[in-house]
C-alpha cells in the first residue's frame, strides 16, 4: 500500500523533530527517544495519494511539513473533503487500534514530508508506556467530539458546499498553527499554497468552476489570489461555517455559491461577537 520513500534529511534533524513532536504530546524525553528511533521518513509529491479508501494503514503518521486532504466518496462518485492533516498533526491511531481499512482517501495538496511509526512499534509503545496510552485516549476522545460528520458530508453534496468546505478545513488547519489561543485573536489572513486545479479535483469540479467560486469569494473580499497564492481573509467566516456544520446547523443542500456566501457572511455578524469562544478541534476527523 505505502511505499516508504527515503527523504534526504539529516538523521539528527529527523530525530530532533520526532522527539520534539512526541514531547509536545506529553511523553517524557526518554519515552520519545524510544519511539523516535523506530520512525522513518516519507515524502509525498503534490497531487500524490498517500492512502486510498479501503486500504489499511500500517503506520502512525506525523506530518512534518505540507498538507494532506482526506476525502470520502459520495453516491454520485465524486469526493467530499472531510479532513485536513497539516504540519504538527498525528493521525492513524484509530485505524491501528480498530484494525479497520480507511474510509477516506488522503491526497497531498503540496509536497508533504511525514514520519511513519510502524504498527509493531506503535503497539509496543502502547503496551509499555502508560503515558502513551493516556495520550492516545485523549486524542481519540477529542477526535470523537470534534469530528466532521460524514453523514453531514453526504447530505450537503452540492458543488459549492464541497468547495467551501475544503477551503474552510484548510483555513482551520492553518489557524491551528498560528498560536491564536495565546494572542486571543485569529490571524487577519492565512495563505493556502495549493494549485486551483488540484483543489478543484478534490471537490469534483474543474479548475474553471473552482476559479469561478473564488471570483465570488473575492467579490466579498473573503479571499484574494495573486501569482497563484491564495490568501484567505475574514478567517472567522470560514471557521463559523465549520462550527455550523459540526453542530448540525441547517444549510441548504442545493444552493449557488453566491447564496451560500451571502448566508454565511450574514450569519457571521452575530457569530463574530462570540468568536473567541470557538476552539478548532485539536485533532482532525477520524479516517
Automatic annotation (TrEMBL):
Ranges where the Cyclic nucleotide-binding domain occurs: 46-126
UniProt xrefs under Pfam families: cNMP_binding (PF00027)
Species this chain originates from: Piscinibacter aquaticus
CDD domains: CAP_ED
Stated name of the protein: Crp/Fnr family transcriptional regulator
InterPro entries in alphabetical order: cNMP-bd_dom, cNMP-bd_dom_sf, RmlC-like_jellyroll
Domain of life: Bacteria
Amino acid at each position: 500500500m505505502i511505499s516508504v520513500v527515503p527523504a534526504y534529511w539529516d538523521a539528527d534533524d529527523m530525530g530532533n523533530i520526532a522527539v520534539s513532536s512526541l514531547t509536545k504530546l506529553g511523553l517524557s524525553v526518554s519515552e520519545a527517544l524510544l519511539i523516535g528511533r523506530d520512525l522513518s521518513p516519507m515524502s509525498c509529491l503534490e497531487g500524490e495519494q498517500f492512502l486510498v479508501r479501503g486500504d489499511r494503514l500500517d503506520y502512525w503518521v506525523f506530518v512534518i511539513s505540507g498538507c494532506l486532504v482526506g476525502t470520502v466518496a459520495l453516491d454520485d462518485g465524486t469526493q467530499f473533503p472531510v479532513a485536513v492533516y497539516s504540519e504538527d498533526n498525528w493521525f492513524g491511531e484509530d485505524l491501528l487500534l480498530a484494525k479497520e481499512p480507511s474510509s477516506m482517501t488522503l491526497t497531498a495538496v503540496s509536497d508533504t514530508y511525514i514520519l511513519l511509526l510502524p504498527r509493531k512499534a506503535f503497539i509496543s509503545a502502547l503496551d509499555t508506556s502508560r503515558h502513551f496510552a493516556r495520550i492516545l485516549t485523549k486524542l481519540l476522545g477529542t477526535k470523537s467530539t470534534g469530528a466532521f460528520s460524514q453523514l453531514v458530508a453526504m447530505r450537503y453534496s452540492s458543488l459549492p458546499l464541497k468547495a467551501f468546505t475544503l477551503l474552510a478545513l484548510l483555513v482551520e488547519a492553518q489557524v491551528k498553527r498560528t498560536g491564536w489561543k495565546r494572542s486571543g485573536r485569529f490571524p487577519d489572513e492565512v495563505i493556502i499554497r495549493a494549485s486551483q486545479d488540484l483543489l478543484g479535483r478534490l471537490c469534483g469540479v474543474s479548475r474553471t468552476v473552482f476559479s469561478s467560486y473564488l471570483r465570488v469569494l473575492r467579490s466579498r473580499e473573503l479571499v484574494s489570489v495573486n501569482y497563484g497564492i491564495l490568501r484567505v481573509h475574514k478567517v472567522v467566516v470560514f471557521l463559523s461555517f465549520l462550527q455550523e456544520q459540526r453542530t448540525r446547523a441547517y444549510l441548504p443542500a442545493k444552493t449557488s455559491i453566491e447564496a451560500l456566501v451571502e448566508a454565511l457572511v450574514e450569519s457571521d455578524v452575530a457569530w463574530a461577537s462570540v468568536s473567541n469562544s470557538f476552539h478548532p478541534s485539536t485533532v482532525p476527523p477520524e479516517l
